[in-house]
């Protein structure tokens, strides 16, 4: 099984929670994998190069709560994700 690095940076986590919310909202289901544009410290930014993140939800009940809130709109979905963010983690997969 591929290993990855658990994301702990608060700013990166904020972006990942937002991306997770947006992907779930658009796809109308809880997704276990999301993509973010790769961060580049120097040189041109290439938007076609992305990092892959595994979404881990520690409690199946929380996943069901997130799933059931998708139909209430993006604001409700964002609120439930923020409420349960301690149970949601992101693992950056190797490139």
Q: How are the secondary structure elements laid out?
A:
Layout: E1 5-6, H1 10-27, E2 33-37, E3 50-57, H2 60-69, H3 74-83, E4 88-92
Antiparallel strand pairs: 1-4, 2-3, 3-4
Write a short abstract of this structure:
The chain is an alpha+beta fold and 95 residues long. The protein has helices at 10-27, 60-69, 74-83; strands at 5-6, 33-37, 50-57, 88-92. It has a four-stranded antiparallel sheet.
Strands of the widest sheet, in order across it, are: 1-4-3-2
Shape category:
globular
N→C terminal distance? 14 Å
Number of strands: 4
Low-confidence stretches: none
Instruction: Give the SSE order as H and E letters.
Output: EHEEHHE
Mean pLDDT: 91
What is the CA-based Rg, rounded? 14 Å
Total individual domains:
1
Keywords:
95 residues; alpha+beta; 3 helices
Mind explaining what this structure looks like?
By secondary structure, the chain is of the alpha+beta class. The longest helix has 18 residues, at 10-27. α1 crosses α3 (74-83). The chain has one domain (5-39, 48-92). The model has no long low-confidence stretch (mean pLDDT 91). It is built from 3 helices and 4 strands, in the order βαββααβ. 12% of the residues are buried. 40% of the residues lie in helices and 21% in strands. The chain has helices spanning 10-27, 60-69, 74-83, and strands spanning 5-6, 33-37, 50-57, 88-92.
